[in-house]
From TrEMBL:
It comes from Halarchaeum grantii. Belongs to the CDC6/cdc18 family. Keywords: ATP-binding, Cell cycle, Cell division, DNA replication, Nucleotide-binding. ATP binds at residues 60-64, 210, 222. Transmembrane segments: none annotated. GO terms for molecular function: ATP binding; ATP hydrolysis activity. Involved in regulation of DNA replication. This is ORC1-type DNA replication protein. Residues 48-206 form the AAA+ ATPase domain. One of its GO terms (biological process) is cell division. SMART domains: AAA, Cdc6_C.
Length: 418
């Protein structure tokens, strides 16, 4: 017998439990899809089309809904000779400025034409924008530009001002750009400059978290395809849905929980996936989600986390937001990054609290000092540094924090204290 043998008992087809799986239909998003269809309909009618922004936390169906709607739009547009449609899709996950997004778009368009790519340095921002306008104008018709995780660009929103005005400013003649922005941050629009808010004139579609019943509806057809008959106990799918609904309302979390439970059952050579497998899978994924939650923060979120990690390394915790803000501005200056207001830093701290990464203490010292909040990490400092060290922009600062923590003997090597 070999060390590795092909599974014949648990998984029939694990594809439906993969993050990249695209379902044939989108469940539990009828209202959102109807709004999406109305927003895209002018393209078929050859009418002016508004930009579209989708908001919602990770795993609420924004990206999969966009792929589904644009696939149908592209297919239906092919029926009309007078509809010329192009779609350009760029993930902004590792892009933190309009300049970087514009370079990525130019290269995406040039890759499609097997043309030479441009480098990420050596050009002025306006030159990169001009190259992008040239590439788009060569497409003609309507060009839908999908910017996934657009909130990563933070305050660097020049592209969101330039693209919608490209035609009226004479930068393009033959193309009508339409932006579809996908954001995990409900407050992203608040961080945009007033001129960008006015220029975008976008349709907004909100994707709320799923509830337990909706998650059961999403999980059930995937489970039917993924597992052999008779493998799943009746309470497995409802329990996966309940855990995810209570935590984040994320379909992605529910699907990963179901897959992890199956893998645990497979490792035990169990004949069925039971409730205990789901509970063990939940414990395992909680640790992984901490890392993932930190990795998916925006650059501004990373800067706030970095500032708190610095205070943690020095033992200056819990720390008030006003003191934390001073450290945050120093980090931004060191990184040559844009700052946000103290109010926005408090918003980021609220997000970190919701992710379970920090603890917030409310203090009330009466008339003398009033009511205020203090913050400290709720995960090991080493776990935070591991994520920051893997993020190139914060590597040097994280390395300095690690040295500081080592001097203070404040590092923990694992999740043992969690």
């Amino acid at each position: 017998m070999g060390m590795f043998e092909r599974d014949q008992h648990v998984f029939a087809d694990a594809g439906p439990l993969d993050d990249s799986y695209e379902p044939e239909d989108i469940r539990e998003r009828d209202d959102e899809l109807a709004k999406y269809q109305r927003a895209l309909q002018p393209i078929i009618d050859n009418r002016p089309t508004s930009n579209i922004f989708l908001y919602g936390k990770t795993g609420t169906g924004k990206t999969v809904a966009t792929k589904y709607m644009l696939s149908h739009l592209e297919s239906d547009a092919a029926q009309y000779d007078d509809v010329d449609l192009s779609i350009v899709w760029t993930s902004c996950e590792n892009l933190s400025s309009s300049y970087q997004v514009a370079v990525a778009l130019v290269n995406e368009l040039r890759d499609a034409q097997d043309a030479d790519r441009i480098s990420t340095t050596g050009y002025s921002q306006q030159r990169v924008f001009d190259l992008l306008y040239d590439e788009l104008d060569a497409l003609g018709g309507t060009a839908i530009i999908v910017l996934d995780e657009i909130d990563n660009i933070g305050d660097s929103d020049d592209l969101l001002y330039g693209l919608p005005r490209a035609r009226s400013n004479g930068y393009v003649d033959n193309v009508q750009p339409v932006i579809i922005g996908i954001s995990n941050d409900f407050q992203f629009r608040d961080s945009l400059s007033p001129k960008v808010k006015d220029t975008l004139a976008e349709k907004e579609i909100l994707f709320p978290p799923y509830n337990a019943n909706q998650l059961r509806s999403i999980l059930s057809p995937r489970a039917d395809k993924a597992f052999h008959d008779g493998v799943l106990s009746e309470d497995v799918v409802p329990l996966c849905a309940a855990f995810a609904a209570q935590d984040t309302g994320s379909a992605r979390q529910a699907i990963r929980l179901l897959r992890e439970a199956g893998e645990l059952a497979q490792a035990e050579d169990a004949s069925t996936i039971a409730e205990d497998h789901v509970r063990d899978a939940q414990d395992e994924l909680e640790k992984n989600q901490l890392y993932e939650g930190m990795q998916e923060l925006t650059p501004q979120g990373h800067a706030v986390l970095c500032a708190l990690a610095y205070h943690q390394a020095l033992g200056e915790i819990p720390v008030r937001s006003r003191d934390l803000y001073q450290r945050y501005t120093s980090i931004c200056d060191r990184l040559d990054a844009d700052r946000v207001s103290e109010r926005r830093v408090r918003d980021h701290l609220s997000d970190l609290n919701m992710l379970g990464l920090i603890t917030v203490y409310e203090r009330n010292e009466g008339l003398s000092a009033g009511r205020y909040h203090e913050y400290e990490l709720d995960v090991p400092l080493q776990a935070v540094l591991d994520v920051l060290l893997a993020t190139s922009r914060f590597e040097d600062v994280a390395d300095h924090i690690r040295s500081t923590a080592a001097d203070q003997n404040r590092l923990q090597s694992d999740f043992s204290s969690y």
